[in-house]
């Protein structure tokens, strides 16, 4: 499903916005995979539970979406990527 993934150039523009993983605790997911899953949801308008498994568990991707939306990471990524400020980051929340 390459057409729903970021290009390397797109990822390079925003990769520094994501925190480095902690030295202890549960291993983090790849933020690029999480962003690809979030973008898939935003582009398709599908429910979270319909997220293809190649992006990871829908609940994990949703957790990252919720965290990054709350702390402003998604807004900064959108601004860095040149998305209009009116772009909404509110996909269908029905599971």
List keywords for this structure.
4 helices
Give an overview of the whole structure.
This protein is mostly helical and 95 residues long. Helix content is 46%, strand content 0%. The radius of gyration is 13 Å and the shape is globular.
Secondary structure: elements and pairs:
Blueprint: H1 8-14, H2 31-44, H3 58-71, H4 73-81
Helix pairs in contact: 2-3
Helix percent reads 40-55%
Query: What spatial form do the alpha-carbon principal axes imply?
Result: globular
Distance between the termini: 22 Å
Put simply, the count of helices is 4
Q: Which structural class is indicated by helix and strand composition?
A: mainly alpha
Percent of residues in β-strands: under 5%
Order of helices and strands: HHHH
Short description:
The chain has helices spanning 8-14, 31-44, 58-71, 73-81.
